[in-house]
Design brief:
Number of strands: 8
Oligomer: single chain
Helix content: 40-55%
Distance between the termini: 27 Å
Low-confidence stretches: 1-10, 18-24
Mean pLDDT: 82
Number of helices: 9
Order of helices and strands: EEEHHHEHEHHEHEHHE
Radius of gyration: 17 Å
Strand order of the largest sheet: 5-6-7-4-8
Length: 205
């Protein structure tokens, strides 16, 4: 894993390694790369994410590099910044680079809420995921009884020392000011490194 720019040449995929590996270029069997993408799709990742994510576009590569080099197995990330600042891409790159140990389950926040309501999926699977990536945290209104189940999710993951990555458009001030988020944020301080992803939308550029 960890290929940034890929060029298929026969049976190999050639590209650049993440900077934290300090060993470019990477040469990975094309079949292995294809299998990784297929495997990640089974854990909720969109094919477009894993094919298009690039460390060259990551604005906070140095911080991510430091975190990946020094992180303990249970440590996660909280990435906050405006829409289009590269949070989802960065989460994808982290998941790809650490794969398959752990394998990261990806879920959009609105989809996770629906799972918590019991409309589809199994909420227990989110609690048991080796790594859980929750994208776009905090969008929309949530019923109090659903907040209770989300609280259970984070409590379970913390107790079992399973890492979680959260991306959000909400600012740290908003997260700490809203009563419904305060319990979550308190737990995150103990288990997550907070990284700001500022700047204009990368999609526009």
């Amino acid at each position: 894993g960890g290929v940034i720019r890929v060029q298929v040449d026969g049976s190999q995929v050639v590209g650049e390694c993440p900077l934290y590996l300090k060993a470019p270029p990477c040469v990975v069997p094309a079949q292995m790369r294809k299998e990784q993408i297929a495997d990640m799709k089974g854990y909720g990742w969109r094919k477009l994410y894993v094919e298009k994510a690039s460390w060259e576009l990551c604005r906070e590569t140095a911080q991510i590099q430091t975190w990946m080099t020094n992180r303990k197995s249970h440590e996660g990330l909280l990435m906050h910044g405006p829409t289009g600042s590269g949070k989802t891409m960065t989460a994808t790159l982290v998941a790809m680079s650490l794969w398959p140990n752990p394998k990261a389950t990806y879920v959009l926040w609105p989809e996770m809420i629906e799972q918590m309501k019991g409309k589809y999926g199994n909420p227990m699977e989110l609690g048991e995921a080796g790594m859980l990536v929750i994208d776009d945290f905090g969008v929309g209104d949530i019923a109090p009884w659903v907040l209770g189940k989300i609280d259970w999710l984070f409590e379970t993951r913390n107790a079992e020392m399973r890492p979680t990555i959260v991306t959000t458009n909400l600012t740290p001030k908003t997260l700490t000011a809203e009563p419904e988020w305060q319990r979550f944020v308190d737990r995150w301080r103990e288990t997550m490194t907070s990284i700001s992803m500022p700047g204009p939308s990368m999609r526009r550029s």
